[in-house]
Backbone:
């Protein structure tokens, strides 16, 4: 079938021979062509596509279903398949290739743009991609693979032939290469990488994790290892080796010269069967044993004991060829005797300073003066010291202190914080006591005024009392000092007591009771102080109203 214009078919189409469409081709159903199919324009198939022969599309091709081409497939534009894509021959796409299912190419695969496969990708006779390649599933390539852009494989990648990658290669899963692998750019492997053949690295090789080499490793350029490197066999270095922070658990044999630019730290014994030349200083923190003759042309500084013949030499000196008296022993460039003298002087000054600090004592807590200052003097073994201290008490339970010595080159300083917990038994503060005393004085003044009032009332009643009239109150004891006065006042009607007939002399009198007594005195013609009448005027008026 040959169509010189565009072709639009709404249903399925079956072509037993060849199909040639010189324009665009749109099929809403499935398409099956037993022969060759050629589309000069764009091809859009809503269903599946099956071509037993060759497929040539000069424009772009979009297939919403599966695409099966038993022969070669050539697409000048972009190629997009929503289902699986199976090509029995070669695949040539000038644009991008987007496959949302699996893609299988029995022949060569050449893609001019980018390739995206959401499923598995299989190329049985090599693949050439001029753009980037992104494969969500596994990738299996039987022949050679050439990618000018980036390649991303989310699953496993299996390449049986050669692989040439001009840019970056990212493998999130495992990558197995049985042949040769050449990487001109960077290679990043986040999973495991097993190389059974040779690997040639033209640029830098950076390994951030562990690198395990079972066979021989030949590095002609620079090798930078940021992680750990385990070498199960021998390591042979014919040139110069620069090593930073290296741990050697076994033996280290150096046949040639060794130059150490930094610090050499050896935790175990060091055996040297030949000469050792030290151009700079030689420091030994532990013991040093010299089996032969030890010749020192310069000075020897000994930080610890000097042993001669197995014994510690205390009264000696390593100076020249002899051992001299203890006064001539030199340590750190100074005479041992002078250092002892300096130490004795410092001990004396420290003792005097401690004695001066011990003489500082704060005063008792005063809420009106929260700062205390103290001075102390100390003497010890010919040395004198003066100490000054300051104490601050924000409250009765907390104290801050700061003290130090002055006038000596051996200055001493201390700081402290003292805190008391619990209610304590020391009593109340001075401020609380002062407040209570003022309140008690005010109460005493009021009581004195009331006593004076009662005395005046009694004095006024003296001339009005008939001593022959007596009325006993049963609750007043016979031996009480006021019994006679109470009985006579009760007999004259000045006091009446309570309704039950008792006097209740231990009970405090109210203002109304005092006013009642004054009122009865006035009724009997007694003279009462005018100030007292003014003080109890409200109560007297109330009583007068009741007796009318």
Residues:
């Amino acid at each position: 079938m040959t169509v010189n214009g565009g072709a639009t078919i709404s249903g399925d189409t079956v072509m037993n021979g060849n199909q040639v469409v010189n324009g665009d081709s749109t099929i809403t159903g499935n398409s099956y062509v037993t022969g060759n199919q050629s589309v000069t324009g764009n091809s859009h198939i809503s269903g599946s596509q099956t071509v037993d022969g060759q497929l040539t599309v000069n424009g772009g091709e979009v297939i919403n279903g599966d695409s099966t081409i038993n022969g070669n497939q050539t697409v000048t534009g972009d190629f997009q398949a929503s289902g699986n894509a199976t090509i029995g021959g070669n695949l040539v796409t000038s644009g991008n290739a987007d496959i949302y299912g699996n893609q299988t190419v029995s022949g060569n695969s050449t893609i001019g743009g980018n390739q995206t496969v959401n499923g598995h990708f299989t190329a049985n006779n090599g693949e050439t991609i001029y753009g980037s390649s992104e494969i969500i599933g596994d990738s299996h390539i039987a022949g050679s693979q050439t990618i000018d852009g980036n390649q991303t494989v989310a699953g496993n990648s299996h390449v049986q032939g050669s692989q040439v990658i001009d840019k970056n290669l990212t493998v999130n899963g495992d990558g197995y290469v049985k042949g040769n692998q050449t990487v001109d750019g960077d290679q990043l492997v986040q999973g495991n990488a097993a190389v059974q053949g040779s690997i040639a690295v033209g640029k830098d090789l950076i390994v951030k994790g562990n690198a395990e080499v079972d066979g021989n490793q030949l590095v002609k350029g620079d090798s930078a290892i940021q992680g750990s490197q385990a070498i199960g066999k021998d390591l042979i270095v014919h040139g110069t080796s620069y090593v930073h922070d290296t741990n050697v658990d076994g033996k280290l044999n150096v046949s040639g010269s060794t130059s150490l630019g930094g610090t050499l730290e050896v935790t175990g014994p060091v055996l040297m069967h030949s000469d050792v030349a030290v151009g700079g200083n030689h420091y030994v923190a532990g013991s040093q044993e010299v089996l032969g003759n030890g010749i020192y042309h310069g000075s020897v500084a000994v930080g610890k004991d000097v042993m001669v013949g197995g014994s510690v030499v205390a009264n000696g000196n390593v100076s020249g060829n002899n051992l001299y008296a203890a006064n001539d022993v030199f340590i750190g460039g100074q005479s041992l005797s002078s250092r002892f003298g300096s130490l004795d002087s410092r001990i004396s000054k420290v003792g005097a300073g401690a004695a001066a600090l011990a003489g500082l004592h704060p005063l008792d807590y005063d809420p009106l003066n929260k700062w205390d200052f103290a001075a102390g003097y100390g003497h010890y073994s010919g040395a004198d010291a003066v100490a000054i201290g300051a104490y601050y008490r924000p409250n009765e339970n907390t104290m801050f202190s700061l003290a130090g010595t002055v006038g000596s080159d051996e200055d001493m300083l201390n700081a402290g914080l003292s805190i008391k917990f619990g209610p304590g038994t020391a009593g109340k503060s001075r401020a609380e006591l002062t407040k209570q005393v003022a309140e008690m004085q005010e109460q005493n003044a009021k009581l004195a005024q009331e006593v004076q009032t009662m005395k005046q009332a009694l004095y006024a009643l003296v001339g009005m009392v008939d001593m022959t009239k007596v009325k006993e109150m049963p609750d007043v004891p016979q031996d009480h000092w006021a019994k006679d006065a109470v009985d006579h006042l009760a007999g004259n009607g000045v006091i009446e007591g309570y309704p039950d007939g008792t006097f209740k002399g231990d009970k405090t009198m109210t203002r109304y009771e005092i006013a009642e007594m004054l009122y009865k005195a006035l009724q009997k013609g007694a003279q009462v102080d005018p100030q007292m009448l003014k003080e109890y005027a409200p109560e007297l008026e109330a009583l007068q109203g009741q007796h009318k």
User: Anything to note?
Assistant: The radius of gyration is 58 Å. The first strand starts at residue 2 and ends at 3.
